[in-house]
């Protein structure tokens, strides 16, 4: 109750502070337009922002260990978050500066217009792709290698139950967690990428076919897609995974293949909708008419005439679709029916290490394990979304 | 008014038709399971007699079309059949008293819990996202707008379990304000129940607020270029009044639409969140049944999720027709 009271008192203080700021500003600057026309809400916002900033700085410089020798976990996590935020901002800035000076004229121009969030997204995507491709060289151990030391704590400090050989520790059966985290990039991201490509191939082809041929094929495909889209996608995926797990039996890898197919089909319905809508706008153009009169075949029409004119919306959709597929796969794995062990995968890692979060007050590093795997998933989707957001903003003609 | 009723009836009929087709899809999908349910229940060492008994007991000896209409007929009357897990257990122990928990009995309390969670989330998320959206439209392109934009984009694209564990870390482990496990049972007082539901509700709020807030902002900003907004501005109205009095009522249709769509998402998106918080809702039951392949429960949950999803999409559709005069009086 006293916490609530303190919060209310602080808010009242900020409210008074906002009024004082505006009044003082008007008096000090002799009614400068900035202060004269300032709505109260803006003044309130400034004071609130300043208070939050001051509190953050104060909290950041709190000691990480209390007098009793217990780690002050809240401060530790806060410091990590702030350091990560500042470092990523600097990295994005440097990357953008690099892109502005190195490269062709086109890429330089692209980087000049880029906001910081988008360059951060591009950087993240490049880093993930690099990790996924070179996982075998980057990881210190194999993803299925089992060591004698089990349940090694992260940190690499022998005094606190760690081991310098395993910087992030090992799991219950002795597999190196750092290696599994790195291989997770290959498996989770790779499988999501393959699935998205498959969904685009399927949905795109059928969508363009429906748009070009129209008639009964369009009707049948559209109604089928309507029905499939009426079932929530995660629920439908879970239902089909039940059946797939019965089909796969004890063949674990077969289940992963089924999962790719199932999610590709479910997501291709969304791609179909977009491809058909975009295609319908293109097939009424004169150049399609001309190509038809020239006697071009269906394949030429779809791949040489429609596809090049539909790349921009499809590319943005590819980014968004990849995020959805990636999150669906991660969620399925988290629920225990997705990518199967012994393949290393982030969703499964989160589920396996989730209970460590309860030790946050004693060992922040251990508690960070599930957040590290979940954060790896979040970081990529956030990065892709930043890039897509910027692309959509650019193609929408920069509205007000 | 006549035409409005006709449109609504048309949509309702279309929704029912969709639900019917969806039920066929679900039934066919489940019937693609290899082998025999009865064999699967009893395992490898079952005698043919026992398998036959179970088959007759569960009605598996009928042809698929008969079974489909039997299932659909009883599902419409609220009877969703018996859970395989229960049947299996009873016959295994040999104490089959004939009294079994039906799927409906299993689902009903959990469905109520899930609806409670969705309601609490909606109560927090809708006002917050509307206010944030209006503020972001009011102070567009300011620091505040950019900060909310980046924050909402981050929360919209993070997996639910990431948000859930971050909230658990800060609100349950480091500062024990709220319980991290939602063990809800019968006869709990409303306050207690609310306290246990708050953390999953907050997680879901983070997920859906972003979308609703961005749509509100976009819908309002789209209108700001209209001549009547220009007029209101020239009259000397304050920006806040321009947005709340003039832009908001006209932006209501897309906003209501996105709110209904997000509520539909809430019903289905609860699965992961319920598993993280061990919340006794229908999503958790669904995942558990998927793992042990309890077909009647999976079928029933799927049907309920699809029905809720279709219903809310239908509501969004009808609401947007009702709030738009041009659609209300089609030429």
List the helices and strands and how they pair.
The complex is a heterodimer of chains A (400) and B (331).
Chain A: H1 2-28, H2 33-36, H3 40-60, H4 73-101, H5 105-113, H6 116-133, H7 135-138, H8 177-213, H9 215-229, H10 233-248, H11 252-283, H12 286-294, H13 298-309, H14 311-335, H15 346-353, H16 364-395
Helix pairs in contact in A: 1-3, 4-5, 4-6, 6-8, 6-16, 8-9, 8-11, 8-13, 8-14, 9-11, 10-11, 11-14, 14-15, 14-16, 15-16
Chain B: H1 2-31, H2 37-42, H3 48-58, H4 64-76, H5 84-93, H6 103-138, H7 143-157, H8 160-174, H9 190-223, H10 227-234, H11 239-277, H12 282-292, H13 295-322, H14 325-328
What does this structure look like?
The complex is a heterodimer of chains A (400) and B (331). Chain A has 400 residues and is an all-alpha fold. Chain A folds into two domains: 2-60, no CATH class; 177-399, MetI-like (MetI-like fold), CATH 1.10.3720. Chain A is 74% helix and 0% strand. Chain A has helices at residues 2-28, 33-36, 40-60, 73-101, 105-113, 116-133, 135-138, 177-213, 215-229, 233-248, 252-283, 286-294, 298-309, 311-335, 346-353, 364-395. In chain A, helix 4 crosses helix 6, helix 8 (177-213) packs across helix 14 (311-335) and helix 11 (252-283) runs antiparallel to helix 14 (311-335). Chain A starts with a helix and ends in a 5-residue tail after the last helix. Chain B has 331 residues and is mainly alpha-helical. Chain B has a domain at 103-291: MetI-like fold (Orthogonal Bundle), CATH 1.10.3720.10. In chain B, 79% of the residues lie in helices and 0% in strands. Chain B contains 14 helices and no strands. In chain B, helix 7 (143-157) crosses helix 9. The longest helix of chain B is centred in the last third of the chain and has 39 residues, at 239-277. Chain B is globular. Chain B starts with a helix and ends with a helix.
């Amino acid at each position: 109750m006293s916490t609530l009271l303190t919060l209310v008192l602080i808010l009242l203080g900020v409210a008074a502070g906002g009024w004082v700021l505006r009044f003082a500003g008007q008096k000090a600057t002799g009614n400068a337009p900035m202060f004269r026309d300032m709505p109260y809400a803006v003044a309130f916002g400034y004071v609130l922002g300043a208070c939050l900033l001051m509190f953050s700085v104060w909290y950041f410089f709190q000691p990480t260990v209390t007098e009793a020798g217990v780690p002050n976990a809240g401060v530790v996590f806060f410091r990590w978050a702030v350091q990560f935020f500042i470092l990523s901002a600097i990295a994005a800035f440097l990357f953008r500066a690099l892109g502005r000076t190195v490269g062709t004229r086109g890429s330089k121009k692209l980087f000049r217009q880029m906001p910081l969030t988008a360059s951060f997204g591009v950087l993240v995507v490049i880093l993930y792709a690099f990790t996924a491709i070179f996982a075998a060289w980057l990881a210190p151990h194999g993803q299925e290698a089992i060591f004698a030391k089990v349940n090694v704590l992260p940190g690499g400090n022998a005094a606190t139950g760690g081991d310098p050989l395993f910087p992030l520790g090992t799991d219950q059966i002795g597999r190196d967690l750092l290696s599994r985290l790195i291989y997770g990039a290959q498996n989770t991201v790779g499988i999501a990428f393959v699935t998205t490509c498959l969904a685009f191939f399927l949905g795109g082809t059928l969508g363009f076919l429906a748009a070009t041929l129209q008639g009964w094929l369009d009707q049948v495909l559209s109604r089928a897609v309507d029905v499939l889209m009426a079932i929530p996608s995660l629920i439908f995926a879970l239902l089909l995974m039940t059946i797939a797990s019965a089909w796969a039996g004890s063949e674990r890898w077969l289940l992963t293949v089924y999962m790719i197919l199932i999610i590709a089909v479910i997501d291709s319905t969304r791609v179909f909708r977009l491809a058909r809508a975009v295609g319908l706008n293109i097939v009424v153009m004169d150049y399609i008419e001309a190509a038809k009169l020239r006697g071009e075949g269906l394949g030429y029409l779809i791949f040489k005439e429609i596809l090049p004119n539909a790349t921009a919306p499809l590319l943005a959709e590819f980014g968004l679709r990849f995020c959805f597929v990636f999150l669906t796969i991660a969620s399925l794995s988290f629920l225990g029916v997705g990518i199967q062990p012994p393949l290393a995968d982030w969703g499964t890692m989160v589920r396996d290490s989730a209970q460590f979060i309860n030790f946050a007050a004693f060992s922040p590093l251990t508690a960070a394990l599930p957040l590290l795997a979940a954060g790896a998933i979040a970081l990529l989707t956030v990065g892709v979304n930043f890039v897509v957001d910027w692309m959509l903003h650019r193609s929408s003609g920069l509205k007000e | 008014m006549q035409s409005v009723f006709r449109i609504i009836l048309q949509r309702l009929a279309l929704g029912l038709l969709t639900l019917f087709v969806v039920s066929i899809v679900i039934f066919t999908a489940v019937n693609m399971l290899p082998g025999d349910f009865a064999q699967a229940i009893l395992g490898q060492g079952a005698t043919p007699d026992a398998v036959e008994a179970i088959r007759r007991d569960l009605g598996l000896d009928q042809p698929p079309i008969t079974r489909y209409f039997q299932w659909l007929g009883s599902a419409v009357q609220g009877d969703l059949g018996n859970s395989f897990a229960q049947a299996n257990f009873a016959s295994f122990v040999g104490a089959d008293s004939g009294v079994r928990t039906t799927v409906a009995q299993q689902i009903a309390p959990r469905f109520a819990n899930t609806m409670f969670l969705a309601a609490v989330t909606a109560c927090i998320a809708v006002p917050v996202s509307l206010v944030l959206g209006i503020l972001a439209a009011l102070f567009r392109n300011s620091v505040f707008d950019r900060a909310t934009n980046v924050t909402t984009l981050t929360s919209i694209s993070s997996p639910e379990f990431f948000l859930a564990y971050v909230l658990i870390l800060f609100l349950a482990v480091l500062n024990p304000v709220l319980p991290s496990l939602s063990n809800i049972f019968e006869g709990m007082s409303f306050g207690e129940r609310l306290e246990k539901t708050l953390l999953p509700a907050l997680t879901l709020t983070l997920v859906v607020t972003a979308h609703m807030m961005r749509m509100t902002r976009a819908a309002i900003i789209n209108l700001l270029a209209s001549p009547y907004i220009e007029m209101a501005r020239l009259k000397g109205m304050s920006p806040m009044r321009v947005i709340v009095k003039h832009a908001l009522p006209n932006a209501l249709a897309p906003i209501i639409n996105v709110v209904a769509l997000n509520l539909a998402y809430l019903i289905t998106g609860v699965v992961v969140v319920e598993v993280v918080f061990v919340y006794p809702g229908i999503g958790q039951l669904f995942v558990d049944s998927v793992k042990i392949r309890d077909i009647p429960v999976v079928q029933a949950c799927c049907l309920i999720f699809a029905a809720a999803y279709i219903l809310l999409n239908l509501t969004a559709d009808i609401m947007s027709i009702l709030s738009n005069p041009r659609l209300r009086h089609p030429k």
